[in-house]
Hints:
Number of strands: 10
GO biological process, one term: tRNA threonylcarbamoyladenosine modification
Catalytic activity: L-threonylcarbamoyladenylate + adenosine(37) in tRNA = N(6)-L-threonylcarbamoyladenosine(37) in tRNA + AMP + H(+)
Bound molecules: 5'-O-[(R)-(carboxyoxy)(hydroxy)phosphoryl]adenosine, zinc ion
Low-confidence stretches: none
GO molecular function, one term: tRNA N(6)-L-threonylcarbamoyladenine synthase activity
Shape: globular
Number of helices: 11
Distance between the termini: 30 Å
Keywords: Acyltransferase, Cytoplasm, Iron, Metal-binding, Transferase, tRNA processing
Cofactor: Fe(2+)
Mean pLDDT: 96
CATH architecture of the largest domain: 2-Layer Sandwich
CATH topology of the largest domain: Nucleotidyltransferase, domain 5
Amino acid sequence: IDDVVILAIESSCDETAAAVVKNGRQILSNVISSQIELHKLYGGVVPEIASRKHIEKINQVIEEALEQAGAVLDDMDAVGVTYGPGLVGALLVGVAEAKAISYAKKLPLVGVHHIEGHISANYIEHPELEPPFLCLVVSGGHTHLVIVKEYGEFQILGRTRDDAAGEAFDKVARAIGLGYPGGPKIDKLSLEGNPYAIDFPKGKIEDAPYDFSFSGVKSAVLNHLNRCRMQGEEIVAADIAASFQRSVVEVLVEHAISAAKDYHMDKLAIAGGVASNGALRRGMEKACQENGIHFYYPSPILCTDNAAMIGTAAYYEYKKGTRHGWDLNAVPNLKL
Ligand code: KG4
Ligand code: ZN
């Protein structure tokens, strides 16, 4: 059979990214231009600034991806692009670029769901991983527990009712003065803290065993900070970080393991920016070992937003016959 080489583009949030992916799982290049330094000034992603920066960077990033892959546009078999969910203005830049290339070079256009991309990141370093498996997607915008039934076919078991896991990390980090993005900073600071110093609540929802809620633990952290300030008690940021992280990680692990058992899944993967979290990886690894479940997680570079994962997802969509027309549009709240 012929090789399928895909140029993939990702611009849903604050990373401008392009990659060249061969046969779904072989990454020929993976270029990411991050805007984090720019958005740090504002304590979070500013949509208008993100869109403008994507426009400035996208051509350069694509050229670099092709060059590193030792390829030109004419070598591509298709163009894959994230068309949702995400920031509409940011998404539009990638979608417009992908449509232009696809039109000019007469290449099939394959729109990709961003979350399907995050999940697909697991295929890249685990050639043996195939559906069905359970996947916990934890990013700055999403928290989903899904069964990957087939390539590109999902059954959602649970989701967050309020904040996404990464959002909670970012908000708590901001409250204890760590800056943006907070997840990696809490991860690091937690190593110096006592995770049992403070008993923050674990977000559980009655009658929805796989759903999540992180606004409660976030409020509890804010209340704790207020109490310390009012009573003149010392604020130990490392203990707060470690205790908050324990509360979040325990819930993520418990829900994922009970879903794996209930649905007889012997493979469990994690995906999204928060999947880089050390405590989550260790906690999930241990729980999976105890329950005879194979545990999969991507390298940190494939956990955060990148285009390689979009190329992998686009490949499996391409194989299924997914083709988009010139009317492909950005869909900010695209459902999985
Ligand atoms: O997947 P991602 O790059 O972008 C979205 O699609 O949202 O995820 C970014 C999120 C941010 O909230 C960031 O704080 C969080 O992932 N994050 C982490 C870690 N690294 C990134 N959260 C906890 N621990 C980490 N090590
Ligand atoms: Zn993402």
